[in-house]
């Protein structure tokens, strides 16, 4: 999301009541994510090294003490994924060529297309978390009226938004250079992302 949305969200966070580390641990379910790989489809590059990760029911949001979006936002921040925003997902195909993105569903349900128009439509609901490696095309297909996502980014990387097919050749080069993050946004330093996102050695 643009910097203005991140600033707006930052202002909210200053006045919110956040769960502490122990409470967060109790609300997170240690789920093994589903890994989905997408090839370059000629329109969006997707990622040549890392798969999309879908954590089903990763966060227990059934608590009255904290708002669902606050729980997810705090979780991502604790694990080093910041510059967060809270909104819906754009309904046009786009991707980020210089940074990875995590999206946690705080409220409602949706169908999100990943991998570009030749990719796959994923149904998500509150408590699910979707990690999109740099280059992954995505867009909203449909959602419930109350649909709300918390998005965030790892510490390394620069936010950009690619939508023009003419950008793909240069964007593909940038995507290939984006490094693996240091932590899993859901489960931290020991999370499954670190094992799943391994660059396979090239064959000579």
Write the layout of secondary structure elements.
Blueprint lengths: L2 H13 L5 H7 L6 E3 L15 E4 L12 H11 L2 E7 L13 E7 L1 E6 L5 E6 L3 E4 L5 E6 L4 E7 L13 H10 L15 H4 L8
Antiparallel strand pairs: 1-2, 2-7, 3-9, 4-7, 4-9, 5-6, 5-8
Structural account:
- The protein has 204 residues and is of the alpha+beta class.
- The chain has a single domain, classed as Jelly Rolls.
- It has five helices and nine strands, in the order ααββαβββββββαα.
- The chain has a six-stranded antiparallel sheet with strand order 1-2-7-4-9-3. A three-stranded antiparallel sheet has the order 6-5-8, with no helix packed on it.
- β5 and β6 form a beta hairpin.
Distance between the termini: 40 Å
Q: What CATH first level would be assigned?
A: Mainly Beta
Total number of domains: 1
What low-confidence regions span 5 or more consecutive residues with pLDDT below 50?
none
Q: What's the total helix number? A: 5
Q: Report the β-strand fraction as a percent range.
A: 15-25%
Please name the fourth-level CATH homologous superfamily: Jelly Rolls
For this structure, the CATH topology is: Jelly Rolls
Structural class: alpha+beta
| Bulk shape | globular
Give the tags.
alpha+beta, Jelly Rolls, 6-stranded antiparallel sheet, 3-stranded antiparallel sheet
In short:
This protein is α+β, with helices and mostly antiparallel strands and 204 residues long. Helices cover 22% and strands 25% of the residues. It is built from five helices and nine strands; from the N terminus they run H-H-E-E-H-E-E-E-E-E-E-E-H-H.
């Amino acid at each position: 999301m643009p910097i203005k949305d991140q600033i707006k969200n930052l202002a909210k966070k200053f006045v919110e009541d956040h769960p502490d580390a122990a409470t967060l641990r109790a609300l997170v379910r240690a789920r093994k994510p589903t890994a989905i790989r997408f090839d370059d489809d000629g329109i969006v590059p997707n990622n040549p090294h890392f798969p999309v990760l879908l954590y089903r029911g990763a966060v227990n949001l059934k608590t009255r003490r904290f708002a669902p979006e606050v729980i997810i936002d705090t979780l991502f921040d604790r694990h080093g994924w910041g510059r967060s925003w809270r909104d819906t997902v754009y309904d046009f195909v786009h991707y980020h060529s210089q940074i990875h993105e995590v999206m946690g569903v705080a409220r409602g349900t949706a169908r999100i297309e990943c991998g570009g128009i030749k990719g796959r439509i994923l149904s998500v609901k509150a408590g699910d978390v979707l990690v999109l490696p740099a280059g992954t095309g995505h867009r909203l297909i449909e959602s419930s009226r109350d649909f709300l996502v918390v998005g965030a980014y790892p510490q390394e990387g620069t936010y950009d938004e690619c939508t023009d097919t003419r950008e793909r050749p240069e964007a593909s080069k940038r995507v290939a250079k984006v490094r693996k993050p240091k932590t899993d946004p859901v489960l931290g330093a020991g999370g499954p992302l670190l094992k799943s996102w391994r660059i396979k050695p090239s064959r000579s």
